[in-house]
């Protein structure tokens, strides 16, 4: 039976940690608008071609209203962060959403991120030093990938360094859809919410040089600013969004570079390739998680296929990033590829707000690792690396390395 006659299960099962499932290429060529069954049992439509994914992500008719009564549920228990009550507090469309993005986005400019580079590098150096002290091998994900983005976002939110590990636990509990019980997740959300309420109140009383203080200083809704609850949820959302995705990407990027160690050697010989290498790692990431779900408010067509109102579409940016019609030698990792218009951060009005932060963290991690651990190598064969099983974000369970 060919792909366009069967209904695939989604996410498509794949054991290889760094390689894409074979079905992607077949779907792109033969069935770019495919019917899939989600973990909940509900049906959705999967897009895998570059032009289609880019078009849908930029089209305001495809919304994030996954709570609509006829929207597909992503998982049987409702789908975690995509459809929680918290997700409803930040406006997700129209002028209100653009206003929120403008207020928060001022903190995520490339210029601001460049100013943070020295402190990011110091955090990375300290984490690598701690890992090296513990022995001649270690888990790069747990030692560096996981804590670094939390520590950086804590700095941006003005959270005391002493509280970083609590933040790590909370964000993991709220994002990992399989590791914790519902009771643990609810307890983490309550504790996190309580902490952020007190933290916002403290910033209101004694502002600092941080994102939350600046949002408070912009005034309330009547002054064109955000309400207290929106500021609080923005703080939580930034921590969650900016943490797990980048933590996993650090591990996957380093794994890709060490799986074929000529890539690592090339970077050691020419560190000016770090910037293009980060972009190519983002494009090549075949294990980025679920993709972006969208809900269609009115009927339309994609690639000549009619989609009725009420369709839930899943955009696979990872499959689109390997589309031969958009990227020459799309399945080859080219550390010099430029331009590289990949869709790892989405596209259009909802493209990732924190992309300058993620890029900067990934660049800094590579700079510091190449400088401090030039002899870094995988401690297991690449084929033995294991994927994290979970719905929202893809990653490796661990990244065993030695130096």
From TrEMBL:
Keywords: Heme, Iron, Metal-binding, Monooxygenase, Oxidoreductase. The keyword Zinc does not apply. Gene3D superfamilies: Cytochrome P450. Pfam families: p450. The keyword Heme applies. Belongs to the cytochrome P450 family. This is Cytochrome P450.
């Amino acid at each position: 039976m060919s792909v366009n006659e069967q209904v695939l299960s989604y996410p498509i099962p794949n054991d290889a940690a760094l390689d894409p499932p074979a079905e992607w290429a077949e779907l792109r060529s033969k069935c770019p608008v495919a019917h899939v069954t989600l973990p909940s049992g509900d049906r959705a439509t999967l897009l895998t071609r570059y032009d289609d994914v880019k078009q849908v992500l930029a089209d305001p008719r495809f919304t994030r209203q996954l709570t609509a009564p006829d929207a597909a549920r992503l998982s049987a228990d409702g789908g975690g962060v995509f459809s929680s009550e918290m997700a409803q507090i930040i406006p997700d469309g129209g002028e209100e959403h653009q206003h929120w993005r403008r207020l928060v986005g001022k903190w995520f400019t490339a210029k601001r991120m460049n100013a943070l580079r020295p402190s990011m590098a110091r955090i990375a150096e300290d984490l690598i030093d701690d890992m090296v002290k513990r022995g001649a091998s270690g888990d790069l994900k747990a030692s560096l990938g996981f804590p670094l983005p939390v520590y950086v976002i804590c700095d941006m939110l003005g959270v005391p360094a002493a509280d970083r590990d609590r933040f790590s636990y909370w964000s993991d509990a709220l994002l990992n859809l399989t590791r914790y019980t519902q009771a643990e997740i609810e307890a983490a959300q309550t504790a996190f919410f309580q902490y952020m309420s007190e933290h916002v109140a403290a910033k209101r009383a004694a502002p600092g040089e941080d994102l939350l203080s600046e949002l408070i200083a912009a005034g309330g809704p009547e002054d064109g600013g955000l309400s207290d609850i929106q500021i609080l949820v923005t703080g939580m959302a930034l921590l969650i969004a900016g943490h797990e995705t980048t933590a996993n990407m650090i591990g996957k990027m380093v794994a890709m570079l060490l799986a074929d160690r000529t890539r690592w050697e090339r970077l050691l010989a020419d560190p000016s390739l770090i910037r293009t290498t980060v972009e190519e790692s983002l494009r090549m990431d075949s294990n980025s998680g679920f993709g972006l779900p969208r809900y269609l408010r009115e009927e339309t067509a994609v690639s000549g296929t009619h989609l009725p109102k009420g369709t839930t579409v899943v955009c696979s940016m990872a499959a689109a990033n390997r589309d031969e019609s958009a990227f020459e030698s799309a399945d080859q990792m080219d550390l010099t590829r430029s331009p590289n218009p990949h869709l790892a951060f989405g596209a259009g009005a909802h493209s990732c707000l924190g992309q300058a932060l993620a890029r900067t963290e990934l660049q800094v991690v590579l700079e510091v690792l190449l400088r401090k651990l030039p002899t870094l190598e995988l401690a297991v064969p690449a084929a033995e690396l294991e994927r994290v099983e979970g719905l929202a974000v893809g990653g490796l369970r661990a990244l065993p390395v030695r130096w």
